[in-house]
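Internal ticket - ligand job 204, zinc ion:
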Amino acid sequence: MDKQEVAEWIFDYSIEPLIRKHGPKGYSDPASYKPWLRDEFTFRCIYCLIREVWRSDGQDSFSVVHLKSRDGSPELTGVYQNLGYACLACYSRKQNLPLPFDPCAEPLGRHITMKPNGELEAATENGKRLIELCRLNRKRLVEFRQRMISLVQVLEMSDDVKAAESLRTLTDLPSDLPNLSVLRPPGGNDNSDGIKQSYFAKKD
Ligand SMILES: [Zn+2]
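stdout (structure tokens):
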């Protein structure tokens, strides 16, 4: 990790479409896809980029979300390609409201950027709608971004070994990585090779 770059990308939204690694099928309860989605979305909220390792309760502070509305697209209910991973704060605000676009096909980095003061700025009308829908500029979230960026910048400036270690833990993966190879989706897996690319497999 190039520690000099952390403050620049810690809240960076991707500009590349998400090409899914995994393709599990057949679970009747969308929550059963959670281990796959944790890995797919790199253990952070698709909307606000909060990471599991920043939450004392880790994955318990996150939920499976439908990307397209269940009301508007009932055929997509429980379909893996329509599921995302979000923190409970974003989840509770978005609930089942329709997103103005698919955040995987149209990555959020094309719609929103973060200003140096921690606020998000909409680059498009869809970005504006998403910021409003998930309240991504809510006061406490903006203050949290400011604190995290300040902390990272202080750690980056330090030559102390402990500072480097602290910086690493801020961007680390959670300790409870899911072992996807032992899971057996009832409907099979359209992309079982993706398991080799999971963080658990790569760690080994
Ligand atoms: Zn969130």
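Auto-summary: Strands lie at 62-66, 83-87, 112-114, 120-122. The longest strand covers residues 62-66.
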